[in-house]
Amino acid sequence: MGLLDRLAPRKNEPDARPQGAAADAVEDPVFSTKALRKFLSCLTSRESPVLLDLGPVVGSNVSFFGEQLGCKIFVEDIFADLDRHVRNNKLEELPAFLKRRLTMADGSVDGILCWDVIDYLDRPAAQELAAELTRVLRPDGALLGFFGTAAPRDTRYTKFIIVDEVNLKHRPYPALRGRQAILLNRDIIRLFPGLRVSDSFLLQNNLREILFRKPM
Asked: Which residue range forms the structural domain that includes residue 123?
């Protein structure tokens, strides 16, 4: 069965739009993603794939991966961890925290949704997180990351909401810390020495999508 055969029509998306009176007036912006389809193809080539999502819980995304693709899903909200360290004035402890944050066994995860969390981390924290993500990813597993290519105009995080295999909605939400230095391609690649770049796309919304694969 191919990828398109496994993607049934979407159910209602409770996380895709604001609730209440503003729901009829506000629609989350949509952008086209070139890497998501390739990431999904990696997952659907496995039996009962295991997915690690580093963002906040988004109900419709959980349904998409769990109900439609049959994934076992772990949601580990690194953005919330970052906010907590900022709030408690303990940013210097974040690298050590991230080094022990993930409890999965080595090589136990088929796919990782990194979203744009690396952009918000200092280099030591980013290096520790990248090393842990490489550790838990299975050989031939895939990691999808977004990286900003221009300085943002405000301090916020973004929820990415899957519409279908080629479209994502995005919704800002409050952050206690803004993006750090804009990473060049070579800097991103150096963060993941145990992975190889499978695909890289520069989008019109100043995001670079990079799909990493772990060598067999």
From this structure: 28-213
Q: Does residue 3 sit within a domain?
A: no
What pLDDT is attached to residue 15? 52
193: domain CATH number?
3.40.50.150
> How many independent structural domains does the chain possess?
1
SS (H, E, C) the chain: CCHHHHCCCCCCCCCCCCCCHHHHCCCCCEEECCCHHHHHHHHHCCCCCEEEECCCCCHHHHHHHHHHCCCEEEECCHHHHHHHHHHCCCHHHHHHHHHCCCCCCCCCEEEEEEECHHHHCCHHHHHHHHHHHHHHEEEEEEEEEEEECCCCCCCEEEEEEEEECCEEEEEEEECCCCCCCCCCHHHHHHHCCCCEEEEEEECCCCEEEEEEECCC
Average pLDDT (23-47) is: 86
Tens of pLDDT, residues 49-100: 999 999 999 999 999 999 989 999 999 999 999 999 999 999 999 999 999 9
